[in-house]
Amino acid sequence: PPTHPGVRLSLVLASRRGGFQRLSFIRRFAGVTRMLSPYYGLYLVLGLVFRVTEAVIGLLKLDLVARALEAKFGNFIIGLNDSRPKEDAPTDSVSKTELDHLAKMVTFWWNKNGPAKMLHTFYQVRVPLVVEGLAETGRISKADISKPDSLKGVRILEAGCGGGVLAEDLARLGAYVVGVDPGTEMIDLAKRHLETDSADLKDRLEYHAITVEEHA
C-alpha cells in the first residue's frame, strides 16, 4: 500500500555496477508512522534531504565524467573553449592544438568499446539532458519527452560535432541536425559513418567542414 511521501526515506548504499542501490526501510512500518502524526513534518524534511542528496551525488558523478572526458579528448568536445591555449585563438573558436589531437582519434571514434567508450557513455547521459532542456524552454512539449521522435520538427546546429556521435543521436530522435566542425578528418568520418551505418538519417542530418563563424 502507498505511504505518505514524507516517510519514503532511503539509504544510499555502496555503488554496484555503476549505479546506486537504494534500500527502502520505512515502508513496512507505514502503519506505525501514520500514528506518529506529530512527527510527519520531520519525516517530510528528512525525505527531502535524502532526495536532494541523491540529486547532488548524481550531478557530481556527471561532472566527474565530463572532467574525465576533457582530460582524455580535449575541451573541444564538451564546449569548454575558454581554456584553449592562448597562442591558438585570437580570432575565432578554432584551436589548432585540439584539431590535431582529435584528428588522431578518427580510427577509434565510433568504437563504443574502445578508447572512446567513455565518450559514448557520456552522450547517453547528455542526450536526455538536451531533450529535457528543450522541454523546459518550450521548444518541445513536456508530454513528448519520452516519445521516440521527441525532437521531431526541431532544427539543431551542433558546433564542434566531431565524428557525429551526438548529431546522430539527436537526429535519431527526429531533429533536423546540421553538424559543423573545422576538422576535415572528423567531418569525413562523420559523413562516412552516416553513409554506411546510419543511412536512415540522411534526410535530416548534414555535415560541413567549417567553423561556426563561417556557418553564421
Describe the protein's architecture and organization.
- The protein is mainly α and 216 residues long.
- The chain has 7 helices and 5 strands.
- It has helices spanning 30-35, 40-73, 96-103, 117-136, 165-172, 184-196, 212-215; strands at 10-12, 22-24, 155-159, 176-180, 205-208.
- The strands form 2 sheets. A 3-stranded parallel β-sheet has the order 3-4-5, with helices on one face. Strands 1-2 form a two-stranded antiparallel ribbon.
- Helix 2 crosses helix 4.
- It is globular, with a radius of gyration of 22 Å.
- 22% of the residues are buried.
- Residues 1-30 and 69-90 have low confidence and may be disordered.
In short:
One of its GO terms (cellular component) is mitochondrion. With about 220 residues, the protein is mainly α.
Largest sheet: 3 strands, parallel
The whole-number mean of residue pLDDT values reads 72
What is the succession of H and E elements?
EEHHHHEHEHEH
Helical stretch tally: 7
Name the shape in a single word.
Answer: globular
Major beta sheet, strand line-up = 3-4-5
Q: What would you call the structural class?
A: mainly alpha
- Give the terminus-to-terminus CA distance: 57 Å
List the helices and strands and how they pair.
Blueprint: E1 10-12, E2 22-24, H1 30-35, H2 40-73, H3 96-103, H4 117-136, E3 155-159, H5 165-172, E4 176-180, H6 184-196, E5 205-208, H7 212-215
Parallel strand pairs: 3-4, 4-5
Antiparallel strand pairs: 1-2
Helix pairs in contact: 2-4
